Amino acid sequence: MIALATHIANMVGWTGDLIAKDSFDVAPPGAPPYKEEPAGSKKELLERFDKAVTAARAALAGASDEHLMANWAFLEGGKTVFTMPRIVCLRSFIMNHTIHHRAQLGVYLRLNDIPVPAIYGPSADEQSF
Fold first, then answer.
1. Which of 68, 74, 103, 90 is nearest to 14 (CA)?
2. Model-level pTM?
3. Domain 2-111, CATH class in plain words
4. Residue extents of the structural domains in the chain
5. Under a CB-based contact definition with an 8 Å cutoff, are residues 86 and 36 in contact?
6. pLDDT tens digit string along 33-66?
7. pLDDT at 120
8. Mode of pairing for the β-strands spanning 23-25 and 79-85
């Protein structure tokens, strides 16, 4: 569960790189591949997430519409996997990806008898019947 929660926290941080850089290589030639180090505690996880949200908001606030419409590329081993406008990557590669994994985390919480927090209003665990 911590690896998934770490991934979610880190994904928010990808926003700044996606806006600042023209591409990302998950396994750059001659360098180690991208690797996520799991957070060591809930406190560390929340700190990562909060820092990533702050940086993402600043990057978005400073980006022009023209810059967001410019192409961005995802690479693996120096080879292009896909190229799309940054705004599309933000929506699909970051937002939709985060939503997908957040739902997975909700399932893991439920399977471990941990109350699922509110996402779009109260969860069933927060309502009193």
1. 90
2. 0.84
3. mainly alpha
4. 2-111
5. no
6. 999 999 999 999 999 999 999 999 999 999 999 9
7. 81
8. unpaired
Q: Is 129's pLDDT higher than 60?
A: no
Q: How far apart are the C-alpha atoms of 8 and 94, rounded to whole Å?
A: 9
Q: Which helix (H) or strand (E) holds 104?
A: helix 97-111
83: nearest Cα among 19, 24, 11, 10: 24
**Phi then psi dihedrals of residue 79, to 5 deg:** -105, 135
DSSP character at residue 129: -
Cα–Cα distance measured from residue 8 to residue 118, given in angstroms and rounded to the nearest whole number: 16
Tens-digit pLDDT profile for residues 57-78: 999 999 999 999 999 999 999 9
Distance CA 98, CA 11 (A): 7
C-alpha neighbours within 13 Å on the C-beta side of residue 121: 2
